[in-house]
Known about the structure:
globular; 6 helices
Amino acid sequence: MDRQPSKLPVTRISIEQAGCLQLLMESNPGYSQRVTGAGPASDAAVQALSALPPKVQAEQKIDLGLWEGEELAGFADLIVGWPRLNTVHIGLLMVDGARQGRGLGKQIHETVLTLIQDHPSITACRISIVDTNAAEAEPFWKSLGYEPTGEISNYGVGDKQSCARTWSRPVTSMRKENLDE
């Protein structure tokens, strides 16, 4: 019997769906505990849907939701063209706590790679893994082809201090490959 779930729909989500994202984040309290030292803040979803790095325009931000019926099963937050023009930064990729281990994280990541095809200047995907979450996160990102870049930055929220390590993977455009044929 095939245990792979059928593909779930992925759509762009907005601040109006913050309640769904808040429930998803609350289903995964271990992530927040490891990264911030506390459970998800009451406004964690609003922050995730609205936060932008310095000098980034709102149109560079893409938030994606993976839906199982009316419930948000996964989320990905992207910044296109940051911190370099040829890069998409995945700020957060999270799957509902009860749905982990079903391939949904991989599915939403595949959607990210497909979406990037609309941005031919993007040649790399980038993520940052906070050291306090590394044991959980590194195996997943490694399985998707990401490798450490050696770039390290300080990371701190409240009293929780750590480091964030940058990982990346190349992106090959299907359009570019098709042009070579």
